[in-house]
Amino acid sequence: MALINPKKREVQVKIVYYGPGRGGKTTNLEYINRKFKKRILNEMVTVKTYGDRTLFFDFLPFDIGEIKGHSIKIQLYTVPGQVKYNATRRLVLRGVDGIVFVADSMDLRREMNIRSLQNLKENLESFNKNIFNIPLVMQYNKRDLSDEGIPILSVETLEKDLNSRLKAPCFSASAIRGDNVAATMKKVIALTVTSLRKKLE
Amino acid sequence: MEFTIDFTKEQIESIEEILQKELIDMGVQSVILMDLAGNVIVNLDSGETDHDVFSLAALAAGNYGAVSAMANIIGEQEFSLLFHKGEEESIHFSKVADDLLLLTIFNKNVSLGFLRLKVAEAVKRIKNVI
Ligand SMILES: Nc1nc2c(ncn2[C@@H]2O[C@H](COP(=O)(O)OP(=O)(O)O)[C@@H](O)[C@H]2O)c(=O)[nH]1
Ligand SMILES: [Mg+2]
Predict the structure, then answer these.
(1) Beta-carbon count within 10 A of B57 CB
(2) Could you give the 3-state DSSP secondary structure of residue A124?
(3) Please, which residues 121-180 of chain A have a Cβ atom closer than 8 Å to chain B?
(4) For A133-160, what is each residue's pLDDT tens digit?
(5) What homologous superfamily is domain A10-200 in, according to CATH?
(6) Cα Rg of chain A, angstroms
């Protein structure tokens, strides 16, 4: 639920990076934070546990300029991927406008990707939202691992496992190198903001 | 995209006036009216502070949600006092409506009792506007 402030002519849009633990969600935001430093007025906020895992969320506010005379503030969040943190994942999803699903391309993570997507669907349902109706982008992350000889899932397999029914736009990416991190973000913002335009007429 | 809480310009101006009069003029440093998604609806300050309100709102939404979930686990609807006290500055949370939270940041020149009174008054008046 994007929030429009008619007085300040400002819109706040919430985009959440979802996916299995250690898939690269935080790494996406860290890259964006470095790459677009000029547009980011405040520090990235992260709530971590001991040992560098996301406990609650990461948060990165990001200005993308104006649409129809309104300044657009994009708020990027990640959720904690670990299974035991579902309660906090649900809190972060509250009021979400657009989602990036960061899947881990490693062979070993195949089941975890599928389970995390199922968990996303269920959590959205608890807010009466349908995964088929929300702006969603798929990111197949860690493609660089194949260069190191680590077995990864083919894009076809990932598409079949995760995206055969959703048919969301998808990107092969390497968050650690920054490959397609910006493209993923731009796509989800574009999808999310399209529905805003009408509202701002 | 859905827009659950939409405020008109007039509503925002009324809320600002209430918060200014009831809280900022009474010595409170900064107030944020926000929703539980972490969006900032109204933010006013006394001019002495320059906090990162968007990050504060994101963290406050998560914190409030976590505390409410704890309340439910021990069989409470909600906790009536949500308050973090610092050496210099303190933060007070108050629920305004189902999805709305009022965050107040104040220093030791303002007593908690007085603050709670003023917050209650402001919340009552805001409810008449929304
Ligand atoms: N090889 C490789 N490692 C990655 C990539 N993205 C993230 N990682 C690593 O995977 C681990 C987990 O990443 P993190 O962003 O914390 O995952 P999160 O739990 O989804 O937030 C870290 O050690 C990252 O350095 C990538 O594209 N390629
Ligand atoms: Mg993380």
Answers:
(1) 27
(2) helix
(3) 135
(4) 999 999 999 999 999 999 999 999 999 9
(5) P-loop containing nucleotide triphosphate hydrolases (3.40.50.300)
(6) 16
